[in-house]
Amino acid sequence: MAAPPQLRALLQAVNTLLRKRRYHAALAMVKGFRNGAVYGTKIRAPHALVMTFLFRSGRSACTCCHVSCLPC
């Protein structure tokens, strides 16, 4: 099934806008924000949740060990 002409025209207008060099910096910022949000959701949030459950109850020695091993 073919796309309606209005949708085809909208897609063509968006693609034309995205190709313009003038908007490259703004689009790069949007892309960076989006990638940061995806990374934060997939990696950092679950890691923070697991670390909270593992090290929350008086295990400061484990926390210190974990913190000291992170830069390695």
TrEMBL record:
<dbReference type="GO" id="GO:0005778">
    <property type="term" value="C:peroxisomal membrane"/>
</dbReference>
<dbReference type="InterPro" id="IPR019531">
    <property type="entry name" value="Pmp4"/>
</dbReference>
<protein>
    <submittedName>
        <fullName>Peroxisomal membrane protein 4</fullName>
    </submittedName>
</protein>
